[in-house]
Design brief:
Elements lengths: L2 H7 L4 H20 L5 H7 L11 H12 L1 H11 L1 H21 L3 H29 L2 H32 L2 H19 L17 H12 L1 H31 L6 H26 L1 H25 L6 H27 L6 H25 L6 H20 L10
Helix pairs in contact: 2-7, 2-8, 2-9, 4-7, 4-15, 5-6, 5-7, 5-15, 6-7, 6-9, 7-15, 8-12, 8-14, 10-11, 10-15, 11-14, 11-15, 11-16, 12-14, 13-14, 13-16
Length: 408
């Protein structure tokens, strides 16, 4: 019996594929969210000031690794197949996490987090490419939405889990927990079939990056949806990098952080699930436009509330508006991803890598910049979301304008 026949006979169910893709993407979330409650302990043990922003570098270094990793892993995934590359990225993920747990200084920990982020980048690229191998268009958007719903379960429990683990183990032990998570993903992947047929594999050289990049650039839809994603993800990265300090230093509710973070994540997951059930009925493009209008209105309202209160707004109105914005993010990001990938399915692995690199690099840089200009208020944080909404909405509405020479 041939390998191809065996592979065909053990195709995973949609539920299993969603779970695997969602948890593979969640490897990045758990790598960030689990350690957020440990930042104060890390600052103390490494001899940093209690209000030091240096620990935010653990998020930025990880994001930079996620920005660098997608292109080489996307190339390899299009050449050697999804499963082999996924195992390699899991090994890098585990190695980076264990190194971060072992090194004695923040300097070396940042390098380990960078390597760790490289591994997480590969997992994300493989997850998206695997879904794109099997689905397209609104069907892909639905599967991505359900995968994101599973993915969002991690931010629901990770901060609370981290807050519990930090009470019973050294903070370095939490890095080991992340390594175990990735090892479990690697073992699970051994029972899943390869989704990239041999005759669809691409040669391994950098020209493929140029081909995939040009495929995105020359597709008006792929380009504008990608740029919209950049804006949305850049603002979200500021939330990840600054949320612990905002809750602690602006609202003085440090002990509430795991519950605020987890509660918002539950709402984000509910939004993804609702959209996943209805995206085909609504239509992918229409869903993106409506969601962006709602996101932008909520983000501008959040900034207005913050600005009118001098950067120290009343807690509950601000948190409610923030939750609405983040639900909008979780609805938008997988659907923008799916819409951007529709025209470039012939180079899905490398195109997903280019997409991930651009969005994550922008997120890392903007998140780092916003963390460094944190002024003890939520004004910079809120402004980032408002600007992201305006920019992304402009990009998506531009798709409805006629091209030069076209008549509507």
């Amino acid at each position: 019996m041939t390998v191809a026949v065996l592979e065909a006979r053990r195709q995973p169910s949609r539920l299993e594929l969603r779970a695997f893709a969602g948890l593979s993407m969640a490897s990045a979330a758990i790598s960030i969210d689990l350690i957020l409650p440990a930042f104060s302990r890390i600052r103390s043990d490494l001899g940093l000031a209690p209000d030091s922003a240096a620990t935010a570098g653990l998020v930025t270094a990880f994001f930079l690794g996620m920005a660098v990793g997608p292109i080489p892993f996307g190339l390899m995934a299009d050449r050697f197949g999804r499963r082999l590359v996924l195992l390699a990225t899991c090994a890098l993920f585990v190695g980076g996490a264990l190194a971060a747990a072992a090194v004695p200084s923040l300097h070396w920990m940042l390098w380990a987090r960078f390597a760790w982020g490289l591994g997480a980048a590969g997992l994300r690229v493989i997850a998206v490419a695997t879904i794109r191998d099997r689905f397209v268009g609104a069907d892909m958007a639905r599967e991505m939405a359900f995968a994101m719903t599973i993915f969002i379960l991690v931010p629901v429990v990770a901060p609370a889990l981290g807050a519990g683990l930090i009470k019973i183990m050294p903070w370095r032990g939490m890095f080991v927990v992340c390594a175990v998570f990735a090892a479990a993903i690697a073992l699970w992947s051994l029972r899943l079939p390869e989704t990239l047929p041999d005759d669809n594999r691409q040669p391994l050289h950098l020209r493929q990056v140029w081909i995939a990049t040009m495929a995105i650039v020359h597709s008006r839809a792929a380009l504008l949806y990608t740029l919209a994603s950049v804006a949305i993800f850049a603002a979200f990265s500021s939330y990840l990098a600054s949320s612990e300090r905002v809750v602690d230093e602006v609202f003085h509710r440090k002990s509430w952080f795991p519950f605020i973070f987890g509660g918002i994540a539950i709402l984000m997951g509910a939004g993804s699930m609702s959209v996943g059930r209805n995206v085909e009925r609504i239509g992918l493009d229409r869903l993106i436009r409506w969601s962006l209008v709602a996101y932008t209105v909520a983000a501008i309202a959040m900034y207005s509330v913050s600005l009118s209160a001098g950067g120290h707004p009343t807690f509950w109105p601000f948190i409610i508006l923030l939750a609405l914005v983040l639900v909008g993010h979780n609805v938008l990001f997988p659907n923008l991803n799916a819409a951007a990938m529709v025209p470039v399915g012939h180079v899905a692995g490398t195109a997903a890598a280019v997409y991930a690199t651009v969005t994550t690099a922008a997120g890392a840089l903007v998140g780092s910049w916003l963390d460094h200009i944190f002024d003890g208020t939520v004004n910079p944080f809120s402004l980032a979301f408002g600007m992201a909404g305006v920019v992304a909405l402009g990009m998506v509405l531009a798709l409805r304008l006629p091209r030069a020479g076209e008549v509507r």
